[in-house]
Amino acid sequence: MYVKNYVSLEILKERTRSEKNPKVARRIQIIILAIQGYTAPAIARSLSLSRRSCQQSVQRFNQQGLAGLQDQSGRGRKPLLSPEQNQIFKKRLDAGPTDADGVCTFRGEDLRRILENEFGKVCSLGTVYYQLHQMGYVSLTPRPQHRNSDEEAQLDFKKKFPETVQAIAEKYPDKKLRIFFQDEARFGQQGTLTRVWAPQGSRPRAVRQTQYDYLWVIGVVCPETGQAEGLLSPCLNTKMINIFLEQFSETIPVDEHAIVVWDGAGFHRSKALVVPTNMTLIQLPPYSPELNPIENLWHYLKSHFWSNRVYNDFDALMDAAEIAWRKACLDTELMKTVCNTPYAKRATIN
Question: Which of 14, 179, 191, 282 is 20 to 30 A from residue 59's alpha carbon, by CA?
Answer without folding.
Answer: 14
